[in-house]
Amino acid sequence: MPAEIMDNITIAPKSASLASPKLTKAKASTTTMPSLSLSVSYGCEHIQEIFKQLRKVSLREYALIQTSIHDRHSVISQTLRSPQVASSGRPVPCLTPTYLCLQCPSVNTPEQRDDHWKSKSHAFCPKKRKYDDITSNEDPRLVAANTQFVPCRAIGLRGLYNMGQTCFMSVVLQSLIHNPFIKAFYLGEGHKSSTCEREKEGCTSCALDEIFTEFHSKEITEGYGAVYMLLGSWMGAQALAGYQQQDAHEYMQFILNSLHLSNGGDSISSSNSNSNPEQCTCIIHKTFYGQLQSTVTCDKCRNVTNTFDPFIDLSLDLRSQVKKRKLDGELKDKDIAMELKECLERFTGKEKLAAADYTCQSCSKTAQNATKQLSIRRLPPVLSIHLKRFEHAKTATKLNTKLSFPIHLDMHPYTTAVLAPKQVAKDRAIPSPHPPSTTYELSSVIVHKGNLDSGHYVGYCKEGGDWFLFDDSKVVLVEEREVLKADAYLLFYVVREFDGAREP
């Protein structure tokens, strides 16, 4: 299948992958409105057929309403349930118009409507309109002048301009833009720039909200300049200021922490900081937060000590795995790629601790040999995996080891339930901290090309059923096999089944 470049060609994705656009924060258009005929089609092309089918039903219902209005007495006693007599359940007659709240099922008199607005700030219809008003020739022009057409194909497929070695930022932002949980949060008005107190301080969450608005409200294929995100990153981290190439993993850690602080999270250095990350309700913790369990067993008395550590991403060491395969004589053929499961098995494998590194409390606090093992106690909805390809010792080097990774990843063998079942048995009273499924599906891949001095970042993201390559402002439709052959640096897996009601 030939690649289609988004800078020049508009790609029409499959209808199944179309996402609902964001309908708010439409900027005022500076272009002149074209002349409109009296016949205006409301909505997108997908619901025009529904409007045609409902036209006859609507006309019939309207005729019945007109008949009822003309046949009945002009003074009609309306009823509503007043809060003062709610206990009795009796309706209260009212000769004045009643008003239905647009945000809750409350029916109010004019006086109650005003009180309802003051207490809850809920909206009511501002005025009654005659039938002639809503069928006048001015109505279509009024609607057209105050609305903006939002195509259903605006699904966020846009590149980001390189503003001076900012490819490290672009690939991380693309992974967030196509993250289903982050997308649902921002398209659902999870962060409102109009009420954000950090907007003037270079808020990265406001900048990301603007990116989602631009990407999902206009069907534009040229790139987008994330200037406010770049400025917010510079203001948030002095090390990022300037036009030097940065590490994508380090930027990912920065932007996740910045979004955490911008969406209700506490700073670690703050006096009001919550020491328990599980209690943080920000979108970043809900999406990326996981927990590791470290189990240390004394070789002498078999005493077990467990500690728990939060994580946002798993950092897997490639160099130690390469050394292990060399010792085992498995690297005779250089074309044989290492597998991701090998790195995960080594990450959760048993490790011997020397007596100098461990003091057993049960052995009279004496130094003892011990065995340490890591396991995943809590799996996050989105699992991010960092592959350590860069080593900064005496000289900085990059490890170009080939690593194969699957589209579907089963994390069950690396959980505490499998590796430390006795501990799980003790904690049966505690609800399972895992999502209902431990099977994950690949969502995004970040690749570093070249060497440390003159490298470049590109990213692969899945939108609907298709994979796309994001290379700065260029967006190319690619096949799945190209993604699986990439030299991955960061991997993002999304859990296949998720029940938001299940919290640890």
Structure, explained:
Residues 158-496 form the USP domain. One of its GO terms (cellular component) is nucleus. Keywords: Hydrolase, Nucleus, Protease, Thiol protease, Transcription, Transcription regulation, Ubl conjugation pathway. This is Ubiquitin carboxyl-terminal hydrolase. GO terms for molecular function: cysteine-type deubiquitinase activity. This protein has 15 helices and 22 strands. Helix 5 packs across helix 9 (248-262). The protein is α+β, with helices and mostly antiparallel strands. It is 28% helix and 21% strand. The protein has helices at residues 48-71, 110-120, 131-134, 138-145, 167-177, 180-187, 204-217, 227-236, 248-262, 283-288, 319-327, 340-347, 416-419, 421-426, 480-484, and strands at 78-80, 92-94, 99-100, 107-108, 290-298, 304-311, 313-317, 338-339, 350-353, 359-360, 366-367, 370-378, 382-388, 390-392, 396-398, 403-404, 408-410, 439-449, 456-463, 466-471, 474-478, 488-495. The strands form seven sheets. Strands 7, 13, 17, 18, 19, 20, 21 and 22 form an eight-stranded mixed sheet that branches. It starts with 47 loop residues before the first helix and ends in a 9-residue tail after the last strand. The longest helix has 24 residues, at 48-71. Among the domains are: 15-24 and 151-262, Cysteine proteinases (Cathepsin B, Chain A, Alpha-Beta Complex); 77-149, no CATH class.
